[in-house]
Amino acid sequence: MPKKQTNIKNYFGAASGGNLSKTNPQKTLDSFFPKGAAMNTAATGSTPANKRKKNDHSKETRKKTTKKDDWKITVQNDHDEEELQTQVEYYLSNANLRKDKFYRSKIISSPHGNGWFDLKYILSAPRIQSMNVTTARQVVEALKSSEEVETMEDAEEEGTFLIRRKNNKKLPTFRSQSDYQRRRRYDSFSDYGFDEGSHGFSGYHCDRLLECGVKPWDDDAGYVLGALYDY
């Protein structure tokens, strides 16, 4: 122990110009490390506490921001625009509006007129929500190339978008389920088939074809293929 004390004493004495104080060690240390001198932390690999705290906080903030931005990007792009366009076009198609009371009522009773109604009613559809579509702008982007429906921003309320059938196309006649049952008409393929002497499938029939199926034939115990037309 005496040998180590002598070495330390000699070391500090030499570093401080031989002014090692026995009665005031702090004075000796102050002379060895002058006030305002920065400690060299490279040798120890440590960082001052105040700087370390600031750096750690900045790093944590960057991580949170990155995660938030990534989440936004995922939501915006996590859907198929072509599928979204097809689904929205179906909602406003003749096939759906013949029987869909909800969208018919929104079009007819909308205060915007001319077939326009609020796009939020499209966003509220369960099928649309299942596609991770959360904003009206996503729908607007998907419908830019649509030839069946069109959108526009409400001139009176910024950020609100409206939608309608292209060129305010006339609504089809509403059909209840009972109407469908009464109007159901099956024609055998022998009447409109491709056999010699048949009428054939004209454009008139193809445009109005609703479904194909089978039907018991009244004059026979068997079944015949048939087609349901919209007359």
Automatic annotation (TrEMBL):
The record lists the lineage as:
Eukaryota, Sar, Stramenopiles, Ochrophyta, Bacillariophyta
**SUPFAM superfamilies xrefs:** Winged helix' DNA-binding domain (SSF46785)
Biased segments, Basic residues type: 50-66
Could you identify this protein by its name?
Answer: HTH La-type RNA-binding domain-containing protein
Q: Where is this region: Disordered?
A: 1-70
Q: Identify the InterPro entries for this entry.
A: La_dom_prot, La_HTH, WH-like_DNA-bd_sf, WH_DNA-bd_sf
UniProt-listed Pfam families: La
> What are the record keywords, sorted?
RNA-binding
- HTH La-type RNA-binding domain ranges (all copies): 74-173
List, as start-end ranges, the regions of compositional bias called Polar residues. 18-29
Q: Which CDD domains did the record assign?
A: LAM
Q: Which GO terms describe its molecular function?
A: RNA binding
